[in-house]
Amino acid sequence: MDFKSTDSFSQADMKHSDWAQKDYEIARAFIEDHEELASKNPLLDCGQGVTAILPLEVPGLGFRLHGLIMLAPLPLFIVCAILVPIFGFSGNWEISLTTISITFGCAIMILGLFRAIRLVVGQRETFPRQYFSTIGPQGLSMHFSRLQIPFCNPRQELLWKNMEHFELTKIFFLPGILIFKPMLSAVSAKSKEGTSVILPAPYSQNGLSRLQNLLNSSQR
Predict the structure, then answer these.
(1) What gap in Å lies between CA 49 and CA 71, rounded to an integer?
(2) CA dihedral angle for residue 211, residue 190, residue 168, residue 43, rounded to 10 degrees
(3) How confident is the model at residue 24 (pLDDT cuts 50, 70, 90)?
(4) How many CA atoms lie within 13 A of 168 on its CB side?
(5) CA separation for the pair 131, 41 (Å, rounded)
(6) What does the alpha-carbon distance between residue 52 and residue 27 come to, in Å, rounded to a whole number?
(7) DSSP summary character for residue 147
(8) Exposure class string for 32-54: b at 16+ Cβ within 10 A, else e
(9) 172-219: per-residue pLDDT in tens?
């Protein structure tokens, strides 16, 4: 099967069938027990014939309320640290040892706050890896939120027996705006009826080739 270029999406919504939900539960349980592997492998073999496709290069994590409460003040502190030297030098500040020291201190604070954000987001008890796609014995399925993928069905699924071909595409992933990467490379798996399952693909060319080989071998 060859990859072709397309930008079309399926708009039909559906609930997951039993096989797709089972694949998701297998993958999520494996991911929770193997966080170190999951943090480095966008294509993760979860056993029982299930592979998870993880959007590692973008903030595609779930969250819990106490995690958001912990995280919320940090971006505000970053904005304040940025604005202090901006307003200072646009006002009455002159270049001196004091103002340079304040600016340097703000820069160090910003770096420290970004580090703190990474540490907070890295806590899987509050920011679990619960959004990904799966390749299973019976077919493909997406497990995302409408807030993440607003322009297509984020919970689409497709049986291998109904598969027709795969195509390269791009997908709008809303959380990617936070890192200035709203468009992700993806693979669109087309059915004989014209519906699609959109799989956000690994960022590297090597990862994309691995995904292509995995899809081809799984369908046989």
Answers:
(1) 36
(2) -20
(3) very high
(4) 12
(5) 15
(6) 6
(7) T
(8) eeeeeebeebbbbebeeebbbbb
(9) 887 777 666 788 778 888 887 777 888 876 666 666 677 777 777 766
Model confidence band, residue 3 (pLDDT cutoffs 50, 70, 90): very low
For the stretch 64-95, what's the b/e string if a residue is b when 16 or more beta carbons lie within 10 angstroms of its beta carbon? eeebeebbeebeeebeebeebbeeeeeeebee
What is the chain's alpha carbon radius of gyration, rounded to the nearest angstrom?
Answer: 21
Beta bridge partners of 140: 135, 158
The pLDDT tens digits for 123-173 are 655 666 788 889 999 999 988 888 788 887 888 888 988 888 888 888 888
Selection from 157, 136, 134, 132 nearest residue 145 by Cα: 132
| Contact assessment for residue 116 and residue 78, using Cβ atoms and an 8 Å cutoff | no
The span from the CA of 54 to the CA of 38, in Å, is 8
Q: What is the DSSP letter of 194?
A: S
Through-space distance between the first and last CA atoms of the chain, rounded to whole angstroms = 11
Which of these, 45, 18, 43, 5, lies nearest to 157 by C-alpha position?
A: 18
Residue 114 C-alpha from the chain's centroid? 19
